Amino acid sequence: MDLNTVLEVRDARSRVPWRPGDAWLGGGTYLFSEPQPHLRRLVGLSRTGWEPVRELPDGSLELAATCTIARLSRFGRSWRAPAAPLVEQCCRAFLASFKIWNMATVGGNLCNALPAAPMISLTAALDGTCLLRAQDGSLRRVKVADFVLGAGRKDLGEGELLRSVTLPARALASRTAFRQASLYGLGRSGVLVIGALDPADGSLAVTVSAATVRPFRLWFPLPPDRDALRGAVDSAVGADGWFDDIHGLPAWRRHMTLRFAEEIRRELTSGGAAG
């Protein structure tokens, strides 16, 4: 898509005051996919030099906003953390060609805040925290599960930049389970559920996404029984939290979410509590 209203593309390394009509440019796979008549200038992030994936001294993992899906996938295949399989599973949940994989970024996937975005699913399930930088240089941190507010809505101020997402060491040590469903063989995710069992204290986190307008991460200090899990999902999502579009009706999304959540509970807890 030619963005014929864009008059200038500048390098993000040169600090120029933000103005109406500006937009951050990462991989550009969304920006150039449809008309953007409100844009006048793009601020490119490709030369920032941020390390795509960085293992921190405390055992946590930092994903730069500019890390591409292809780069993350390569890292995940060689990574030895217990939660490593989840990286490739979420990368493969993309409805995207290899060309998109090599350009689309983790940050762009989060900032679009689409329900089916698999990087939202991955980072929310592993209790990720977004690092946000305002135009005045101030920083703030927001959990991924709180960063995405709804379909296409996120907690991001005017000119604010998503710099990175950090996944804590404790979450990376978890044993995980993954379920995903689409209406079509190669269709967009209609339901995506991830479980993470903490080996340190036996707590269970179940993250629901794609079926819902935003991600919901449900944490249980001890694995719940079937009825408690179903009740927690329904209570958290509510009647209005199920997404409704051509990729799945809310009733189907809820049914599959509850089915997958129970499968995950059983897989990670060998049947879990009686029920």
UniProtKB/TrEMBL annotation:
InterPro entries, per this entry?
Diverse_Substr_Oxidored (IPR051312), FAD-bd_PCMH (IPR016166), FAD-bd_PCMH-like_sf (IPR036318), FAD-bd_PCMH_sub2 (IPR016169), Mopterin_DH_FAD-bd (IPR002346)
Q: Provide the FAD-binding PCMH-type domain boundaries.
A: 1-172
Sorted alphabetically, which Pfam families does this protein's record hold? FAD_binding_5
In which domain of life is the source organism classified?
Answer: Bacteria
Name by which UniProt lists this protein: FAD binding domain-containing protein
What species was this sequence derived from? Streptomyces stephensoniae
